[in-house]
Design a protein that fits this description.
By secondary structure, the protein is mainly α. It contains 3 helices and no strands.
Length: about 100
């Protein structure tokens, strides 16, 4: 839901108060849980690396492709999706405080 507000925020549309309240709760929780989530991602990356190694050993291009896709998905969460969601909360808070 926070990422669904990117377009309305970028275009200056009004965000309903109830939506803002819900999204702020989500982004606050995400900010608090982010270190734990990133720590869990280390385990995911290690497991994906093992999958990739096993796939290469077995010459399974399908499994190797899956490992690459899983690694890319985890990276996109860490580098784009999670930070963008947190920024949505920050922007909502700033715009609300400016009123």
């Amino acid at each position: 839901p926070p990422l669904g507000l990117l377009e309305p925020l970028a275009t200056g549309k009004t965000i309903p108060a109830e939506t803002m309240k819900t999204v702020l709760a989500m982004t606050d929780l995400l900010r608090a849980e982010l270190p734990k989530m990133l720590e869990e991602h280390k385990g995911i990356r290690a497991a994906v690396q093992k999958l990739a190694e096993a796939a290469r050993a077995e010459k399974s291009t399908q499994a190797e492709r899956l490992a690459k896709e899983l690694a890319a998905h985890a990276r996109s969460e860490e580098e784009v999706l999670y930070p963008a969601a947190i920024l949505v909360g920050d922007i909502l808070r700033m715009r609300h405080a400016a009123k």
